[in-house]
Amino acid sequence: MATTAQAKKTTARQTNKQPKTTSSVYLFKGVDKKGNKIEGEIDGMSPAIIKAQLLKQGIRANQVKKKPKPLFGSGGKKIKPSDIAVFSRQMATMMKAGVPLVQSFEIVADGLDNPNVRKLVMEIREDVAAGGGFASALRKHPKYFDDLFCNLVEAGEQSGALETMLDRIATYKEKTEALKAKIKKALTYPIAVIVVAIVVTGILLVKVVPQFAETFSSFGADLPAFTLFVLNLSELAQNHWFKILLGVAAFVFLFKEAKKRFESVGYAVDRYILKVPVVGNILYLSVMARFARTLSTTFAAGVPLIDALTSVAGAAGNRIYRDAIIKIREDVSTGIQLNTAIRAQKMFPTLLIQMASIGEESGALDEMLEKVAVYYEEAVDNQVDSLTSLLEPMIMAVLGILVGGLMIAMYMPIFQIGQVV
């Protein structure tokens, strides 16, 4: 009996040590029932299983081999948050249509263009098909599915309303990504203007100004101070352009790393950027929209308010407001009403506080916060449009000052000679 028990334990240990089989993409060549040559690619566990699958489809495979990985890069596009939003919407649609969960993964995966997203969906499908929960399968991929996403899915599984929860998640992800796109649009435009201005100035300093310098060397007269400054700047750019580019790249890299690694740097950046004219207001409105949207979604899903505020703090997108939301959660946990806790922070607008108060009194907090989210999302959209209109004349002014200033510096000696003659 003891020997049998030991054998069972040994077998169990060996079973646990077996690596988990995952599907891969295979290339196949074969013929169908009519003798026509067919080739393509298919996901599967092994060549033998793939041959059996193809045989069921009436295809006799002559060659099955694993698809080689590209020499450079991981192959395919990166998985973006927008891809996760699309996946959420498609899963919600499948579940609403009554398609079983495992089969929904297969249908969604077949319709995806990004092979990396397809592989991710199939890995989740395998975990669920093996008897695991949807939320537990998602938690194995924290890079793409945050705690908020997983918690909402888990709430849907426990309540038996997974299709409804997936629809709410899909709406939340779509709204969040749309808001992020607006913020990127607002920030990308001025950055692009600065980059273009620097590039144009650099080209003039390296290519155009030296031509004038050769002409000025034959004048035999003192040059204006502004012209001498531009000539010295041109000489610096010609001799050290590589060092300048390397220094700028190093500064950007170190700044990003410092913001990521040191909380004090991140706090300083988040605090300062809120004070930047126009752009700071856009970021402030986006934080308010994200706060209302996340809290509305989690509270409507049946998540307790304290737990919902934890998710909201993680999705704030700004360290200053993240800490403020954590303090709100602490106040609410002591029995203080939500609107009172929000008002105590003195960082949130009156509209949000009043709507939260009305929602608590009427028992429709999620609906009131949904209206607040829509209002601030529209406000962000309007602010971005206003910023775009404001920057268009500013672009012309900045480029005009840079290019015009260089040209004036180059022609000032010529004007002076003309006046002497």
The number of domains is: 3
- Summed up, the helix count is 16
Can you write the helix and strand succession as a string? Answer: HEEHEHHHHHHHHHHHHHH
Mind telling me the CATH class of the largest domain?
Answer: Mainly Alpha
Please compute the radius of gyration using only Cα atoms.
31 Å
Reported for the largest beta sheet, the result is: 3 strands, antiparallel
CATH topology of the largest domain: Receptor-associated Protein
Q: What amount of the residues lies in strands? A: 5-15%
Number of strands: 3
Low-confidence stretches: 1-21
Helix coverage percent: over 70%
Structural class: mainly alpha
Structure description:
The chain is mainly α. It has three domains: 21-68; 81-175, Up-down Bundle (Receptor-associated Protein); 176-421, Receptor-associated Protein. The chain is built from 16 helices and three strands. Strands 2-1-3 form a three-stranded antiparallel sheet, with helices on one face. Helix 3 packs across helix 4 (101-110), helix 11 (279-300) packs antiparallel against helix 12 (305-314) and helix 15 runs antiparallel to helix 16. The chain is flat, with a radius of gyration of 31 Å. The termini are far apart. The relative contact order is 0.07. The model is unreliable at 1-21 (pLDDT under 50).
Question: What brief labels describe this structure?
Answer:
mainly alpha, 3 strands, disordered N terminus, three-stranded antiparallel beta sheet, Receptor-associated Protein, 3 domains, single chain
